[in-house]
Design the sequence.
């Protein structure tokens, strides 16, 4: 008679990563490990999630997973905020014995730079308004307070009229002083914007072109014209 005693599952070696490897706010976290049992028994898995070294969540996966397979548990991104440190712990159960609890290394949720999108004027806009309003918008996955930079550059050879605005609180800017160079003389302006979330800048947007066209107007006010002696 041969007696085969049951052995506890092999201790897992969990690792933690984000869905795309960036560790950004909007990425889910995954706790992964190869799960094995010396007797080839089916295994249940319990996963603990730790936020800033404090136990935050425990989930039991009682699906009788096959020995020798890769197990992965997912923590949805809605549970995480930038700056937090997360790790996962894993324990296996073969129906009789438990493995030891084994924890992964720590993972820090990183800041996501904001994204800026230009709204108006449209690219290639032609206008006679020499103090146009520039409008853009921005999104930030972390919900940070945002400020904006606006760059308006004149071409060709008219950099003396470049405009650069730093730390704007609103996603728009109306010029006070007239733009000086006109498309009638083959000059044009490019404009772009970027956003700061208090920690890092997002990328500059792709530039848009605006052409300022000359406009000559004469206005005669009724009952106010004096031609003198004719």
Sequence:
């Amino acid at each position: 008679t041969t007696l085969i005693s049951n052995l506890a599952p092999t201790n897992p070696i969990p690792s933690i990563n984000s869905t795309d490897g960036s560790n950004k706010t909007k990425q889910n976290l995954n706790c992964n490990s190869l799960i094995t049992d010396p007797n080839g028994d089916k295994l249940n898995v319990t996963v603990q999630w730790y936020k800033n070294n404090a136990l935050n969540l425990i989930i039991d996966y009682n699906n009788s997973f096959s020995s020798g397979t890769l197990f992965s548990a997912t923590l949805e991104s809605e549970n995480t905020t930038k700056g937090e440190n997360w790790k996962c712990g894993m324990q296996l159960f073969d129906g009789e014995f438990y493995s030891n609890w084994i924890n992964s290394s720590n993972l820090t949720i990183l800041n996501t730079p904001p994204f800026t999108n230009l709204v108006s004027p449209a690219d290639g806009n032609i206008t006679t308004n020499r103090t146009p309003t520039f409008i853009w918008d921005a999104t930030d996955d972390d919900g940070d307070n945002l400020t904006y930079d606006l760059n308006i550059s004149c071409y060709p050879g008219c950099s003396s009229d470049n405009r650069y605005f730093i730390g704007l609180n609103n996603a728009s800017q109306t010029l006070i002083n007239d733009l000086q160079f006109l498309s009638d003389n083959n000059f044009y302006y490019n404009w772009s914007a970027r956003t700061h979330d208090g920690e890092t800048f997002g990328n500059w947007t792709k530039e848009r072109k605006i052409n300022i066209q000359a406009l000559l107007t004469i206005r005669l006010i009724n009952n106010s014209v004096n031609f003198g002696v004719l």
The CA atoms of residues 47 and 59 lie 5 Å apart. The chain is about 0% helix and 45% strand.
